[in-house]
Design brief:
Rossmann fold; 13 helices; binds adenosine-5'-diphosphate; about 25% strand; binds magnesium ion; alpha+beta; seven-stranded antiparallel beta sheet
Length: about 400
């Protein structure tokens, strides 16, 4: 799960992470009021779950999701141009994201823009700090063109981020004297936040040095481990479903393990391992999966119905592959859910079904008697080849 920058600031406050003063606004009038209260120069920032806002463009042609303003009236005008509009950045994809709120903050006199992030490193199963002197720009391009400007520092989870490490990072960033002390506090507090909030990522880009010699976190991108949200009620309360893939939101309401992908062959599978294998074999057969979907070992008819409904509601889906190996799962429950969903919504795309295991005969009978135009797969490879061929034929 991700949160907005303005929400991340609540966590900054709790963990004493220095940032610029400001507040969120849902209307242009609110933005003006927040700006008036702050006084001085103002920054207005579109709030979406994606970075690259500064260089983004709104679909109506208005340029930039981050603007500096001199007066509250100007902040109001900028907010009015952003709110309700769709912002496209290199991280949103071509569809962009609608802006429903803006952050209004104090403009900062920036002398240096740095990069600081804490991530979970899958290779070492431990947190890793990534820091760079090249902040404010796309870190991926820094990594590509000037990798020597990036420091990667593993953290021993049993010890946490040690003071010698915060000094090492600060030194690499060229922060000395008072700035090194500030950096030590800021990095330590962010690490504490990262661990205690079950984050998968905390990215501060830019971390800035101001003309007054302060070190401030000016941007905040947070990711959280979904599996830990049950013990993070405050974080969970920050969830903004309008920012998430609607297919995934619908799936989570039915406790389905669903992840939307870019391909056009939908998969409905029981068991995560089989789902992975199914996606691989679709690819092997020359196709491309539209999703990962594990209905689980003990799915109900209602869950299968919901899963099929999500698949059929996806415009990108041109074919469906159902691959079930019934252990605990009763094949007939799957078959019944599919038939009911297909009857209610209509099935206009090819469907290949491979059923095996617990109560398979009853499941096959339900499918055969349904009158649905489905194709049977003899085994996993045969099923994948058939759906790929059907989708190619239809295209
Ligand atoms: P994004 O990464 O989505 O583009 P940022 O919050 O990083 O959004 O803002 C983009 C750039 O705008 C920053 O790199 C910085 O140069 C400038 N900026 C952001 N906040 C402020 C601020 N409070 N005062 C002055 N400049 C700012
Ligand atoms: Mg940024």
């Amino acid at each position: 799960m991700n949160i907005h920058e303005y929400q991340a600031r609540e966590l900054f406050a709790k963990y004493a992470v220095a940032t610029q003063p400001g507040g969120v606004a849902f209307t242009a009038e609110d933005a003006e009021a927040v700006a008036a209260k702050l006084g001085g120069r103002i920054v207005v920032k579109a709030q979406i779950h994606a970075g690259g806002r500064g260089k983004g463009t709104f679909k109506n042609g208005f340029k930039g999701g981050v603007h500096l303003c001199d007066t509250p009236a100007e902040a109001k005008d900028i907010a009015a141009r952003m709110l309700g509009q769709v912002l496209v950045t290199h991280q949103t994809g071509p569809d962009g994201k609608e802006v429903a709120k803006v952050f209004v903050g104090e403009a900062v006199d920036i002398t240096r823009e740095l990069y600081f992030a804490i991530l979970l490193d899958r290779a070492t199963s431990a947190p890793i700090v990534i820091a760079s002197t090249e902040g404010g720009v796309d870190i991926e391009s820094v990594a590509e063109h000037t990798p020597e400007k990036i420091l990667r520092l593993g953290v021993n989870p049993a010890l946490g981020l040690m003071p010698y490490q915060t000094r090492q990072i600060a030194t690499m960033l060229g922060l000395s004297g008072k700035l090194m002390n500030q950096a030590g506090k800021l990095f330590t507090n962010l690490y504490k936040l990262f661990i205690e909030s079950d984050c998968s990522m905390v990215e501060i880009n830019p971390l800035v040095v101001t003309g007054k010699g302060e070190l401030l976190a000016l941007d905040a991108k947070f990711g959280f481990d979904d599996n830990a949200l049950y013990r993070q009620p405050e974080i969970l309360a920050m969830r903004d479903k309008t920012e998430e893939d609607p297919r995934e939101v619908a799936a989570s309401e039915f406790s389905l393990n669903y992840i939307g992908l870019d391909g056009n062959i939908a998969c409905l599978v029981n068991g995560a391992g089989l789902a992975m294998a199914t996606m691989d074999i679709i690819q092997y057969a020359g196709g491309s999966p539209a999703n990962f979907l594990d209905v689980g070992g003990g799915a109900s008819k209602e869950q299968v119905f919901a899963a099929f409904q999500i698949i059929l509601g996806d415009k990108n889906v041109k074919g469906i592959l159902v691959n079930i190996f019934g252990g605990i799962m009763d094949c007939n429950i799957i078959a019944t859910g599919i038939v009911e969903a297909a009857r209610e919504i209509g099935l206009k795309i090819p469907l290949v079904v491979r059923l095996e295991g617990n109560n398979v005969e009853a499941g096959k009978k339900t499918l055969a008697e349904s009158g649905l135009a489905l194709i049977t797969g003899e085994n996993i490879l045969d099923a994948a080849q058939k759906i790929v061929a059907e989708v190619k034929k239809a295209a």
